[in-house]
# Entry
Amino acid sequence: MLNAPPERCGGAPVNVTLDVFSALIDSRTGGSRVCDQIAGRQRWALRGQALYRAWDREHKRLQRECVRWESFAALGRRALVHVLDEHRLRGDVDAAMTELWASLADWPLWPDVARGVPHLAGAHRVGLLSSATSTTPCWPAPGWRRCHSCRTW
# Structure
């Protein structure tokens, strides 16, 4: 459907939205890398990919079960507190979360994103969505321009 000419889509312009985390960014690789660095400094036994997986699983659970609005960053912090408690670990959660969010700019894109999304944008309006808040640092990507709280081509 995405490659269909506009006339096959009822003649109306096709808008395509893509979720940033996991769909465009290889969150597991980027997050695991920084989690390993954080865990090393904090001297946590739970490291790298295991720490990221546990945090990500809990973060997604909290998002699913959220019944009143709470920021992405706040849910992320709660998720890390839960994981550390579960593994009987202690450390500076605020510093860890600040470092994790600050590292987003360094998380890799999936290999097909750099060419695929601009190609898609050549035929369709493309918007990027994220549950990250405006207080969560985002990454500058070449060719992206700011459009209110989203990024678009």
